[in-house]
Amino acid sequence: MSLPPTEQSGNAKHAHLLAHKWLNPNKLAELVRTEGLVYKKGKFSAIEEQQLKGAIEKYQHEKQISSEQLIDLIFTKSDKTKDATFWSELTLAVPLRPIIAVYHHVRRSYHPMQPLGEWQPEEDKKLIQAIADLGQQWEKISVRVSRRAADCRDRYRNHIVNKDIRITGVWSKEEEQQLTQIVTDMTVNQGKDIDNDVFWGKVSELMGGKRGRQQCRIKWTDALSKTVKNEGQKPRWSQQDAYILVHKVDSLNVRDDTEIDWKLISDPDWNLWSAHTLQRRWLTLKKSVKGYEDMTHQDIMEILRLKKAHLPTVAPPATKKRKERKVTSAAAVTEFDSRDSNAATPEAGSSTGVGTFNETLSQEKAADEDGLDT
């Protein structure tokens, strides 16, 4: 199986391109196809956070600017006045990250409006009115609602759109079949990637708005996609999967598991499991190491390598041998009746027949878990 590239695999041309060209997702995808561009997506790791913080402090020290001036630099009034050199220097500190991703991440991290917890009904009303007045101009809406732009956007599209008809709770079989058909029509039937070429807002719309985009994404990635990939059979996590996961993670040579892009772990020969599932399974494996809280990633990895040193063999399915029922023949009954009348009588409550037994098979039930909205 192929293994995900490490950060060292990027070339100088691509590093310069990512740090200086403001490429949108479509352009990045095109460069991946045409030039083999490798770049990182998803959550920034703890080490990347430290690298960015160090780069910002270095810039601030070299330019002799105050904290207030730094905030003004990060939050310029318009794109025309943003300092491209500043953002390029920060991007060079985190290899394989596009400059536009660094821009949005730093602005979220340093935003004066930090996450405020659960949304209140009054805030929802304010958000709905702001959208009616301004459209989906999230930066302007952010100022009016006093919440971060990304929080306003996610609150609107995940919780407010179609709220009156939204269904929560267990999915019906009909809903699962409908979602499967929509996703396969959107991807497989058009020769596209079943995992990465799905527009969840459109999927929600085709579901009649009764399930939100986040609900559809989680249901598909964590429950339905693996069944579709496994030709209708519901796969179960095995010791072989655990072995593969440990050795996949080991091959990355990362300094900390927060650096792992879980979407890159699977490959065509081992792609039943979603990124969310793999991350959960890794956490379970890590927690199986006693004292893992005080260990480095390398220490944990060394122990797991030893625990998963050999590829487990697949045991043949166990076949239960049917228990034979003991039957008392008519001849035996006649023989008992003809015995000496002085023979001992069985105690009250005893039985000469064969009792029955119940055999219970327990199956692991896969549960949908909420993930972060992307």
TrEMBL record:
It comes from the Eukaryota. The keyword Ion transport does not apply. Residues 314-374 are annotated as: Disordered. Keywords: DNA-binding, Nucleus. One of its GO terms (molecular function) is DNA-binding transcription factor activity. One of its GO terms (cellular component) is nucleus. Residues 111-160, 169-224 form the Myb-like domain. It is found in: Nucleus. This is Uncharacterized protein.
